[in-house]
Amino acid sequence: MIDPASSVLLTDLYELTMLQAYHDRGMNGTAVFEFFSRKLPPQRNFLIAAGLEQAIEYLCGLRLATEELAFLESTGRFTSAFLKSLEDLRFTGDVHAMPEGTPFFPDEPILRVIAPLREAQLIESRIVNLLHFQTVVASKAVRMVLAAPERLLVDFGLRRAHGAEAGLLSARASYIAGFSGTATVLAGMRFGIPVFGTMAHSFIQAHDSELQAFENFVRSHPAKATLLIDTYDTVAGARKVARLAARLARDGMTVQGVRIDSGDLGECARRVRQVLDAEGMQAVSIFASSGLDEYALRDLAAAPIDGFGVGTKMNTSADAPYLDCAYKLVEYDGRPKRKRSEGKATWPGRKQVYRRFNADGLIEGDTLTVEGDLQEGTPLLKAVMKGGRPVGGSPSAQAVREYVRTQLAALPERLRLLDHADPFVPTCSEALRLLASQVDAEAECAGQ
Amino acid sequence: MIDPASSVLLTDLYELTMLQAYHDRGMNGTAVFEFFSRKLPPQRNFLIAAGLEQAIEYLCGLRLATEELAFLESTGRFTSAFLKSLEDLRFTGDVHAMPEGTPFFPDEPILRVIAPLREAQLIESRIVNLLHFQTVVASKAVRMVLAAPERLLVDFGLRRAHGAEAGLLSARASYIAGFSGTATVLAGMRFGIPVFGTMAHSFIQAHDSELQAFENFVRSHPAKATLLIDTYDTVAGARKVARLAARLARDGMTVQGVRIDSGDLGECARRVRQVLDAEGMQAVSIFASSGLDEYALRDLAAAPIDGFGVGTKMNTSADAPYLDCAYKLVEYDGRPKRKRSEGKATWPGRKQVYRRFNADGLIEGDTLTVEGDLQEGTPLLKAVMKGGRPVGGSPSAQAVREYVRTQLAALPERLRLLDHADPFVPTCSEALRLLASQVDAEAECAGQ
Question: Final residue of a domain: which of A258, A282, A315?
Fold first, then answer.
């Protein structure tokens, strides 16, 4: 079966119906599209660009399988000549992008595609799908990292992520945002992300006694056992762990930690800590999970909890599960373009974002301008593909994670807080405003 | 590269660490797990069971690839004997489930797995991932169907769905909920779902004139063109379409419809309808899109709009992107089990849901009981796998869609409305209460 992740038919039908019309008219000039977010959800003070590695992989592998072409033919919507022309379709264009992990703000393109029209158009749906999702998750996960900066945060959300790829890529997105790892094994295999795991209630229940379950688990994982203690009574569970740990210590086995997954996590953790400390088990860590989000993490700042399993609300970005984002044509055949739809107007032309920093290294603001118009600051969009091939190589997830750490440090304090602060809005340069008026004037002349 | 959709490693690490411990103790008795939702989001009056077909496919294909075993070995967490035992792992169990498309309520299992412990445990993460997601989307999409019962509804949301599988499976889930089709081409190929498409603003912008863009598109799609008219000025766009349609009619070409994607959709549609009708173009339909959800559809009930493209808010189930659901051990080695964690207690034993209907065929209520305890009504859980093989064959997406239609008709009116109504809560039978007390009494004796 075709893997949807790399299928060219994981696209909107209109991409293909437009390509048919372009084919019929011989229209295949150079098109420039940019991906950006029109505005931020109210619960986000900045976004973290993510998904570029997967976007580049997708572009590198772009080709239609024989059975895909056969399906298109079976729809009766396309001409044979057009379908024939798709056989050798590959991505041959250039891509510029902000490095993954870069904080960005409304109207700032994080990716620009320059390619023959048919290629640049066809890839729209999947490119948006890839960049949007990881950006959504990284931008949510980073808030949890900011809310619990000194704690171990582990992605626990595979089961309620929206499908297989969402599970895999939300592990990646949360890791680059600063999580310590994930429970999703495949993310460890695919991206080299550290994998963590504890045990489920079913393990306890499958045994006749909780204590026996604990012991069996520790004997199988003598140095790495985190025992789930809330199946029946959390404090009683902690006492059993303490007794067990003392006994197993004689055999050279240690209990690494305990997990609490229900009730008032802060209060339970305090009582469990007391039980463990009273037995001299200061080294046994406390791990907590259960519907956590960044606000719950902030509220638990004083609790004696060493690490958190964070699932559903991170993986689905529950309070803002989507962005108002778009992949828009900004130039065709050498002519800048813009759309003027009510409430959805866009800036024309190839653009660049310049970021200004103050003497302390903090971001002061951004300027949005046309490419080639030098502005103060550091340009954020860089070449990542040339002529259909990647340039420079992809940084590892670990490297992106480290880059995010430095980027967070450069954000002004108010943007790093959970509460709403006005995000930066880039200054639009004179050159960009002039270009927009020119494009509008030409459109007026053409009677649009 | 391994397709995450079928990878056994698309699982939480704890499934595997528990299996290691089970292996070490030789624990592999028959386990029974049930999947259910603890409570409904406040914005849902019922849920629609979905995802069963993909769950069965996953179980039928369960096996570890050589490179997956190699990765597990490389982690150093597992013994060679255990990894060796995984080589021939297959799913050999029985599965009972509610048919896809069945409305269900809190605490009602929609799927039960009866299998050797290691199999029933290992599949947890992905089974939840599959059932949860499509249930979330079908339960959202059906609200849109109820809000706009006579309109064409098309899934437009691939780009903001959470990844590749979410795009593909949200097309399926919305179709079975009653949508007319999807824009996602691969969903047409994979599930036989009707595929719809219009055009993007970029198509208009790539041309020097909007009129020329319209004409080029119609000439390439002479019977199936829906023209996007809001790139510059919606009403002016409609006038161009009217002039063009009159001219192309002489060549035997028709314009099927127009699409509006911005502004006040109701007001724009009324003005566009006037323009088209004044030119005798009553047959040209109006299609609208732009951030629609069920409430927007309800507000547009009186607008002259024939169909809607519904995207992001449906595909992400934006107002309730996840369910409080679980896959819980209810029996091991012949003994019923339950969990008593604070706020997360579950009912023990293999259960059945009986649904009662009144003389008009409307649902009166459900009874939750232990399997084998006959109750009034129709039992909802039926065998779908026996000994690891599917029983009876999977209904087509079309058949499930038709079943959903009949199920919606059987819901009481108050549950079909968008506003919050108390959903049914199943009556727990005497037999089930008795079993729960017995299990608790045994646990007390065991000192849990």
Answer: A315
